[in-house]
Amino acid sequence: MKECILVVDDDREIVKAITLLLEKEGYCVLKAYDGMQALEMASQYQVRLIIIDVMMPKLDGLSAVMKIRERKNIPIIVLSAKSEDTDKVLGLSMGADDYMAKPYHAGELVARVKSHLRRYTSLGDIHASVSSANIVNGKLCYNKEEKILYADGEAVKLTATETKIIDLLMCNLGRVFPAEEIYRRVWNEEAYAAENTVMVHIRRIREKIEYNPKEPEYLKVVWGIGYKIEKK
Amino acid sequence: MDTKLKKSKAVIGFISWMAGISILFVNLVRLFLESSYYEDFGKHIEYTFQEDYQQDERFREHISDYLDVFLSMSIAGKDQEKDEREREEDEYWEAEVVEGMDGFIPGWDDYYDYYGYEGDTWYEYGWDMDKKTAENYHNMIKDDRNILYRIEKSGTILFTNEENLGSGGGSAGKNVYCYELTKNDGSKEIFSLPEGYNFLLYFDGNKVEIWKDGGKIDIYGNGYYQEERGWYVPGYRNFIADDAVKESEVYIAAAKIPSIYVKSSSDGRGTNYRAFYNIWKDIQIEKSAYIKWANTTIFAVFLLFIGFIFRKERKEAGIIIAAYTGKVWYEIKLLPLVAVSALFIMLGLRMINDFFWMGESYIYEMRFGYLYYPGLGKITCLVFFFCILTIWMFANDRYYNKEYGRNSLIGKLASLYRTSSLRLPISKRIARNYIGISLFIWIMCIVCAFFIIAVIEGILTAGIGLTIFIVLLAAILYFPIRFVRCGKKMAEAMENLVGQIQAIHDGELWERNEIWEGFGLSKAVENLDDIKNGMQEAVKEQMKSERMKVELVANVSHDIKTPLTSIISYVDLLKQEDDLPEHVKEYVMILDHKSQRLKSMVQDIFEVSKAVSGNLPVNMENLDLGKLLRQTIADMEGQMEKSLVNVKMRLPENAVVIYADGERIYRVFQNLIQNALNYSLEGSRVYITLQEDGEMAIACVKSISKEEIPSGMDFTERFTRGDKSRSDGGSGLGLSIAKSFTEACGGHFKIETVADLFIVTVSFQKIKE
Fold first, then answer.
1. CATH topology of domain B617-765
2. Which residues in A lie closer than 8 A to residue B594 (C-beta atoms)?
């Protein structure tokens, strides 16, 4: 069964571009061009996910999100040209599950859509799988005993070193580790040119777990201090 | 018409108020005098209005004296021989001494005349009287019909000036009084007075009885004679009648209304009998004076009432008068006031002096003056009127013209001096102040020296010396205080000015400046105010325009992003098409590349505009700058490897901690390194160094430029590019963003060029751990 995604934007070309993008991935796409229409569509059809713009005629995106949230518990991704942090905070606090700035990166959008749908549908309630061995952080889930990292429920293939780094960072969510410490603890050697070595591995891990490795959400550099996995 | 009425109302109200006060004042003085003159003032007024002269003290004295003389007469000649001898002596005394004295003391007789005492009735009484003297005396006074008398001895009448006295009819009628006498032997007698007579004194040999207006008067009181009041007649317990007069009986009747009796004599010396008349006349005068007093008092109250009614107009008149008097120099106004106060002081001193020396009689004199010279009251009234007018004028002027100092001769001179000194520049004025102090010191030194010499040499008398000493002391006390106050004022003005400069320096542009009057610096303060206002305006304008710029950029970047999104989306879709010809794929690659650049440029523009306008949010924390540089370089390793330049690092091993926003500083160095990679000469080396210089952490990026660096170029200017054609990949915002972000984090950003060497220095304050 094809999953149905509602795309809302007053710019028809963008709607069409996203439609093409998503249909290529095998989703069924519904189109709406303003907030009111979006509300109607959301109530009429069995929509699994909504991608919505903020600045639209008749009813703006955030208001629409609030209205839809009153009845539906589906993932909503806000796609807006407003890229300020404050805009993001506002959007997420209004009930959106995700916030993407325009111009969006096609691959990232698709990845996010997949991720949300997987968590919403196939995984069901993600908290059901929570056990003492599992560390859940956003889309990441790390099993301490098995030493396996899941991203959106799928196991990520990591090398031994990478697994060690992930183990260190996931077990200390939010804690900042200087490169020297990571090096010492992972390689069990005195640090030498630690920054470069660690950075190379970090970059590789990012490519495996982040939607957009250039703008990482989870594995972050704390400039001038060290590295950490952001607590979600 | 209306204004005229109002004017006259004001004048009337004003004058009646003043006149009322002055009349009342004079009347109060007179009331005080009168009431303090008489012991029982109420009773005095009562009989004054009854015109009863018999109540007067002087009447009593006269009657007492008459009785005394009559008693002497009744027993005259009892010791004839002795009398004879004494009479000769007396005559001799009279002839040689008293007559002679008449010449020596001018006005002797006048004095007696004036006070209503007849010389004859006065000095020749006494118990030693011979028959001849008694006879003479009888002849002398018998024509004074104001008193009727009958002197009896042992039942025989010795002297009388009215044969029928006592037996005039025996029945009381209108204006005729009959009194029942009790004789010494117990028998009673009806004694009737002639018409017009209401007073009877009867001496029965032991005591006196007096009837008046049909009633008997109690003369003895508690039986003891007291000097102050009462009848000086025998019969008191401490004033018993002499045995010699046991046989005597005296009847004295007095007229109700006295009149003048004149007796002409052959020698041309007429006798004027007016003792009682004078008393009566005095009472008449007093009565009319009292009536006049009452009338004037009522009149004064009436005047005050008018003044009270027109008080509003009076007040307005006061304002108008003040407007006129305000134009007059203060000294001129002060002069009459001084005169009036001098008058008052002198009069007061005089009064105290007179009262001290004259005592009770001073009050008598004053009272007498007012009583007998009506003009005196009027003059006093007038003088007092002008006195209070003067005082009022002065007080009124002081009340309405608060700035009395301005319109005075001294004040004018002072302000003339002040304005002339105000025109001088501040430096000259300060100099003048010090010159003043110096002059004062010199003058005082010289004067004191002279003074001391003069005192030692004894040139000065004690009085002058003391005066000069006091004046010098006053000057020594006064002027230094003035200098100190002046200096203080100047210092305060200076401090104020300095404070305001400090305030402007600290950026407190919205506080009002106080302008200090009168001390030359006010001009400077005003100028400073102008500068401040100008700055305020400029800052306001700038803030407004910056805000607008940010808004504009935000809107524009948003508006650009929307179509850009479509472009990027469709380029993406195109990229995914596999069956495109090779050259089309190339075009798509170019489109992709440029659209991505456009995207980053839009973001850069937005951020730099925010940073420049100070709206960039920063998340400051302590971080190690060395580590940050290492991380940045590690992060950019891929690009470095691709580029044709070598990157060399000179970073210290120890932590160099600064307080900044890591994200922003990362962007700074990312841009700088990017810049260095893009614009450096191929094959050259880029040096990234970090040094600690005292308090500062200094990071340097040194590179050799590919192109020739144009001189005098500001690289941090937005959209400045190494190559003018702008054909390469940069947005031209790299350095600008770097600079803005550095400054937003509190660091310093500097670009130096030495020939082709391009040096960027980023320095931060170090944090001590």
1. Heat Shock Protein 90 (3.30.565)
2. none
Chain A partners within 8 Å of B632 (Cβ)? 223
**Tokens 């009848």 — which residue?**
B231
Low-confidence ranges of chain B (pLDDT < 50): 100-108, 111-126, 724-728
**Looking at residue A77, what is its pLDDT?**
92
Q: Between A and B, how many residue pairs show a Cβ–Cβ distance under 8 A?
A: 97
> Chain B closest CA to A1's CA: distance in Å?
25
Q: Among A120, A154, A179, identify where a domain stops.
A: A120
d(CA B689, CA B241): 147
What was the ipTM of the complex prediction?
Answer: 0.76
Give B461-484 pLDDT, tens digit per residue.
777 778 888 888 888 888 888 888
Q: State how far the Cα of A99 lies from the Cα of A182, in Å rounded to an integer.
A: 32
CATH code, domain carrying A92: 3.40.50.2300
All residues at 6 or more sequence positions from B388 whose CB lies less than 8 Å from its CB, including other chains: B18, B21, B22
Residue A80 has pLDDT above 70, yes or no: yes
Question: Is residue A170 pLDDT above 60, yes or no?
Answer: yes
What pLDDT, on the 0 to 100 scale, is given for residue A78? 92
Do residues A199 and A135 share a domain?
yes
The predicted-structure confidence for A110-154, as pLDDT tens digits, reads as follows: 888 888 888 776 555 445 555 667 788 777 888 888 888 888 777
The predicted-structure confidence for B641-694, as pLDDT tens digits, reads as follows 888 888 888 888 888 888 888 888 888 898 888 888 888 888 888 899 988 888
The pLDDT score that the predictor gives to residue B639 is: 83
Residue B287 burial class via C-beta count within 10 angstroms: exposed 0-12, middle 13-18, buried 19 and up: middle
The CA–CA distances, whole Å, from B519 to B416, B419, B489, B493, B515 equal 15, 11, 8, 7, 10
CA distance B180 to B191: 6
Most A CBs within 10 Å, among B594, B627, B632, B767, to test the A interface: B627
* Cis peptide preceding A213, ω within 30 of 0: no
Structural domain range at position A207: 128-229
The tokens describing A214, both together, are 């250039």
CB-based contact, B320 to chain A, within 8 Å? no
Verify that A96 and A23 share a domain, yes or no. Answer: yes
Helix (H, G, I), strand (E, B) or coil at A39: helix
Residues 6+ apart with CB under 8 A from B525: B496, B497, B500, B513, B514, B515, B516
Q: What is the pLDDT of residue B122?
A: 39
pLDDT at position B151 is 85
DSSP codes, B330-379: HHHHHHHHHHHHHHHHHHHHHHHHHHHHHTHHHHHHHHHHHHH-HHHHHH
Cβ of A103 and B630 within 8 Å? Answer: no
Please report, for chain B, the start and end positions of each structural domain, with discontinuous segments joined by +.
2-40+284-409, 52-256, 424-503, 617-765
Domain-terminating residue out of A57, A88, A120? A120
